[in-house]
Design goal:
Elements: H1 10-14, H2 18-31, H3 34-41, E1 42-45, E2 48-51, E3 54-57, E4 64-69, H4 73-84, E5 90-94, E6 105-107, H5 117-131, E7 138-143, H6 147-150, H7 160-172, H8 177-186, H9 194-197, E8 203-209, H10 232-241, H11 252-258, E9 273-279, H12 281-294, E10 298-306, H13 310-327, E11 335-341, H14 355-364, E12 373-379, E13 391-395, H15 398-404, H16 409-414, H17 418-424, E14 428-429, E15 440-446
Parallel strand pairs: 4-5, 4-7, 5-6, 7-8, 8-9, 10-11
Antiparallel strand pairs: 1-2, 2-3, 11-15, 12-13, 12-15, 13-14
Helix pairs in contact: 2-12, 3-4, 8-10, 13-14, 14-17
Length: about 450
């Protein structure tokens, strides 16, 4: 379990409230620990397995097979292996990192956030496993964020290199994860209900840890066991929105237009499928607020649907924080206001950072010399973009401290180099990979 001490930074050490704040951050992550999430929804009594209120008699299945895809798949699988015991026949788990191994499961790793050769190999193994199922088998899928890059099986005509270029272009232009996955579902055999299509009528249960705002099933890991409500027109409109039609591989547009239609919500193939959300951003936010109240803060949930360019979100949240401090609305200090969701970043430089540290960096000037407030950004998976930081801490003193070191926030923003800025100040949150993934949280503290 993640400790509060793993969140220490320079500003938190200096703050009288630092210890209480670190416990709030840890509480948010602990609440969405994957094993705990699975245990809340899955119980076994002898041969009867109950999943979110639906009973399955294990004696009626020839085999029980596990498939884990995503950053949280190892921890989710550990919990399910313990529940199923000797009734588990086989399994395949594909995380970003391999932290343990156990029989009868096979563990592979995939590439993230851009898929790689390992992702392609993982896709082949996934297809082999699922295609071997029969109608009297039970497949339990454990799906979490990152799965759409970790496991790929491109449609005919699209190469790994094509997939990598498309993914990189979408990430660089600031496309949202649900938009990226709308395209992926039409270009990959596994995504957009693909697992269901190739399972030969097996019963399927998916336990899903959501990393997408609003928890749309089709967007989480690109919906391998969910119907796809999007159309070809929707996919093409995303390319047009970001001006990517002439900046992607030549294979993409023809394959989009020629690929078979993805299965829709009324398709008969989903009659034996149960999809269950076991963890979400809202759950993490609520746990943080419960802990905040226990620590003596007035708690307030602002929203869990934040979706904007990181710099725009920074301006809005910093403005909100200043006004809340000055007016005592929506509640007086000491207060902990939580915002959940996921921002995007349009890359203009070649620096190091992610959306959470970028949001924090954009807030530095907005909070300059403003007393008794703090803004903290946190990626719940512990990894902000391609870095080992989960986010950063900003106070009214951050700009002054930076100036003493010759650091100018606007120059670092131009380079998208937020990691370097906060690393120099020792204000990066580095709890390490958390094993879970339910979007991002921003904490607005008033003292």
């Amino acid at each position: 379990m993640l400790s509060a001490e793993s969140f220490w930074t320079s500003s938190l050490r200096a703050a009288p409230e630092g210890e209480r704040i670190t416990r709030i951050l840890a509480a948010a992550i602990t609440a969405v620990e994957p094993g705990v999430a699975v245990g809340r929804f899955v119980q076994r009594d002898g041969d009867m397995l109950t999943i979110s209120g639906r009973a399955y008699d294990l004696r009626s299945f020839r085999r029980v097979v596990l498939l884990g895809i995503g950053k949280a798949s190892v921890a989710m699988s550990d919990a399910l292996v313990e529940i199923l015991g000797d009734r588990l026949s086989a399994g395949l788990v594909i995380p970003k990192q391999v932290t343990s191994s156990y029989s009868p499961l096979t563990l592979l790793i995939g590439g993230h956030p851009v898929p790689d050769e390992q992702s392609l190999a993982a896709g082949k193994k996934t297809i082999e496993l699922v295609s071997s199922l029969q109608a009297d088998d039970l497949l339990i899928c454990l799906i979490s964020g990152g799965g759409s890059a970790l496991v790929i099986a491109p449609v005919d005509g699209v190469s790994l290199a094509d997939t990598q270029v498309l993914t990189s272009a979408l990430l660089a232009c600031g496309a949202r994860v649900d938009e990226i996955n709308t395209l992926r579902r039409r270009l990959d055999h596994i995504k957009g209900g693909g697992i269901v299509k190739m399972a030969n009528g097996a019963t399927i249960v998916s336990l899903i840890l959501s990393d997408v705002v609003g928890c749309p099933l089709e967007a989480i890991a690109a919906g391998p066991t969910a119907p796809d409500p999007a159309t070809l027109a929707d996919a093409l409109s995303i390319l047009a929105k970001y001006g990517l039609e002439n900046r992607i591989p030549f294979s993409i547009l023809p394959c989009l237009r020629e690929s078979p239609e993805t299965p829709k919500p009324d398709d008969y193939i989903f009659k034996k499928v149960q999809n269950v959300i076991v963890g979400s951003n809202l759950l993490a936010a609520q746990a943080a607020l419960t802990q905040a109240e226990a620590e003596g803060f007035h708690p307030y949930l602002l929203s869990t649907d934040m979706q904007a360019e990181a710099r725009e979100a920074a301006f809005e949240l910093a403005t909100y924080l200043r006004q809340a401090k000055l007016t005592g609305e929506p509640l007086p200090g000491p207060a902990c206001i939580v915002v959940g969701g996921e921002t995007t970043v349009t890359l203009t430089g070649n620096g190091k950072g992610g959306r959470n540290t970028e949001l924090a960096l954009a807030a530095v000037s907005e909070l300059a010399d403003f007393p008794e407030v703090m803004l903290i950004t946190l990626a719940t998976d512990g990894e902000d973009g391609p870095t080992d930081a989960a986010g950063a801490v900003v106070t009214g003193e951050t700009l002054r401290r930076a100036a003493r070191l010759g650091l100018h926030p606007e120059l670092f923003l131009e380079r998208n180099d937020s990691y370097t800025f906060f690393s120099t100040l020792d204000d990066l949150l580095k709890p390490g990979p958390t094993g879970t993934n339910v979007n991002d949280l921003v904490f607005l503290f008033i003292f």
